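Objective 1.3, modelling of assemblies. Example input:
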Amino acid sequence: MRIGLFATCLGDTLFPEAVKSTAVLLARLGHDVVFPPGQTCCGQMHVNTGYQREPVPLVRNFAEQFGDASIEAVVMPSGSCAGSVRHQHEIVAERYGDAALRAGVATVKAKTYELSELLVDVLGVTDVGAYFPHRVTYHPTCHSLRMLRVGDKPLRLLRAVAGIDLVELPEADACCGFGGTFAVKNAETSTAMLQDKMRNVTATEAQVCTAGDSSCLMHIGGGLSRIRSGTRTLHLAQILGSTRTAPYALTEAAR
Amino acid sequence: MSTFLGMPAAPPRSPYGTGNLRGERSFPQAAHDGLRNGQLRGNLGRATRTIRAKRIAVTGELPDWEALRDAGAAIKTDTMNRLPELLEELERKVTERGGTVHWARDGVEANEIVTRLVKATGSGDVIKVKSMATQEIGLNEHLEAAGITPYETDLAELIVQLAHDKPSHILVPAIHRNRDEIRRIFLDGIPGVDPDLDNVPAHLAAAARAYLREKFMTTKVAVSGANFGVAETGTLAVVESEGNGRMCLTLPDTLITVMGIEKVLPRYQDLEVFLQLLPRSSTGERMNPYTSMWTGVTPGDGPQDFHLVLLDNGRTAALADEIGRAALNCIRCSACLNVCPVYERTGGHAYGSTYPGPIGAVLTPQLAGMHAAEDDPNSSLPYASSLCGACFDACPVKIDIPSMLVELRHQDTEQAGTSAEKLAMRAAATVMGKPKLYRAAQRAASLSRSVGVGGRDRTISRLPAPFDGWSDSRDTAAPPRQSFRSWLASAEGAATMRAAAEEGARRTTDDQDDEQEEQ
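Predicted structure (tokens):
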């Protein structure tokens, strides 16, 4: 399958390892990964903060970059960006776009997937041949869980990983408190939510807390780093991309 | 002869509501107190966790729960679409059955109507059964100013009233109080209470009961709220847990019910849906202990003088707005409060309004407006959410609160004019809308590593305003030296992708071979 990879602005700039793992994983599964070079950002931060006029060029750019009919599916290692493309681009296009933009948005919306959705629903694979011999706990991010309804797809992928010791996260469904600009505008409340999430993560005694969104991991990982917890965060794609021949070196990368 | 066509102007808009629909401080400022109060956070956390588990258990046991939610949403949507005709039908039926209907445009009018009705009875006291509408308009304060003493009879409301406090929750107004605090409040507030009163819940309840019984037996006027008003029959309904409400509704000579106009339901049969949805969503019970219904007056039985005050107070303004109309579907079950991670940690007072939590953050600005330019505390409410979506999943009538919050934020930024934030958002959109500019900015971020940002451990521990709240509790990883796209374009990236593709090709060939062998 010819798959368009959307790196997301956060992944491209700050968390390239998660995107690398996504690209390598899909290529290893026999798919043709294309990276439209003009891609930038989905505009989620704008819409969620209350701005719908401003991200029109971003929505247009996304539709142009991935509109090509030769791209059969668009994937991104982020539930919240996939949620933005699927649910928010339409709102922006309906309100401030023209007919061409609305048509372009509808085209890309129909073929956009978050990583676990693409693997399980579209490519029909749960065992990606990964090897990750570490104790791991999984945080289901809110937008994956409630906007995309990915359900247990990420967990099914993780359970199939060789060597993994997967432990359940208490109160897993609770929001970590990131919420984009919420963490800045309501920093104290966000911190209170983060503290409870960290307490639950450390209670699992996992070496790694994983999730499908770099933004939530940036928040949880930033907190865990501050309290020197010893648990580190790693994107789901990095665990799925770790193999026996090229295992992810946890100790070297640990902060 | 000439025809005057008039000047184009904005169409007339219904006025916003008045009363307890606006706090004095913005949400982040008001939330600060709750967040710093360990006792409050403990009380709230315990209470919401318990009620969440109960709700999941009792909604999970109904095979048609999702169908019930759909039915509830459909009935409420239909109600809002023809609210005027349903209200007129309700008025007709109540009048036919011997009641009197009053229409109040806002809180001021409603307070005047109720005060006038109470004064006409000659009574200096009223007993009250829990009512959000009268909290909203500040009826108790108004009655007191007119020399009439209101007695709250719902136990939690009584605690709040005796403590000169405000409710913190729609359904459990004293959720933020524990039994030690309640003991202290009773010792200070109930005349003649046993000075040796301890903190055992049964003893606290007994003290309240002794106090309230005397009020029930001696007070001739009651003020109630209503959970539902049925247009078809003119029937009003109140659901409660303690039976104190039923005392108010049956013992006095005069009953005055204050009901928000959105509480009307078209048909008696619609109660079937809501009497299943409401208790399961709110208290996690299959059925609430007391459901009281009354239709006008019945000679020789119950209050002989019944008044229904229909309260607008910003509801027509909300009805004219797409989001506001959907927000009016709310049946005040408080399920959204109990699942909201923000409410759980800040408590209801942070929202400033009678309506706290996720639905309050939507409803309050709809009822009372949010004047962004005037630094209105209400304009901070749509941002008091991480948009986690738990409220939407819990809502028995499927109100899409997260989408409505995003829409209200949009209204707020449009209203606010040019701000520093808007300029930053515009600048970010300009950079990210042009791939060339975007790559330049990205290179600058990667370069920051080379000039020492993040130090040796690759983390940044302090950021400047407005990001200092973030860096107070979180480290930030410094940008890596290489972005994904520059890795992909590098020799290393190309080689890695080529190797992966070769492995993929081998795997695909192997799979095909396997399939052929199987065939």
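The longest strand of chain A covers residues 2-5.
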